[in-house]
Amino acid sequence: MVDVSQHELVPDHVLIDDPEEIDAILDEYDVRKTNLPKIKRTDPATPDDAEVGDVVKIVRNSRTTDQAVVYRLVVS
């Protein structure tokens, strides 16, 4: 089976497991955890150790800002 997370076009998906870092992100954007865009637990790009309720940081290459960082809430 092909591991899509290793494909060059799939951006890095990093699990954030530090509650303080998650709180800082939510404060920065003035949102609640449930207001974050969602990513399914079964999505092939979701880290293997991600659980429902976790936050995933996605880092994409960008032509204008070098890197674009977005955050997703893991759902079932």
TrEMBL record:
Species of origin: Halorubrum tibetense
EC number(s) recorded for this UniProt protein: 2.7.7.6
InterPro entries: Arch_Rpo5/euc_Rpb5, RNA_pol_subH/Rpb5_C, RPB5-like_sf
Assembly mode: Part of the RNA polymerase complex.
Residues in coiled coil: none
Catalytic activity: RNA(n) + a ribonucleoside 5'-triphosphate = RNA(n+1) + diphosphate
Gene Ontology process terms (BP): DNA-templated transcription
Main location as per UniProt: cytoplasm
Annotated GO CC locations: cytoplasm; DNA-directed RNA polymerase complex
Protein name: DNA-directed RNA polymerase subunit Rpo5
GO molecular function: DNA-directed RNA polymerase activity
Keywords tagged on the record: Cytoplasm, DNA-directed RNA polymerase, Nucleotidyltransferase, Transcription, Transferase
Family membership noted in the UniProt record: Belongs to the archaeal Rpo5/eukaryotic RPB5 RNA polymerase subunit family.
Record gene name: rpo5
This protein's record includes keyword Oxidoreductase: no
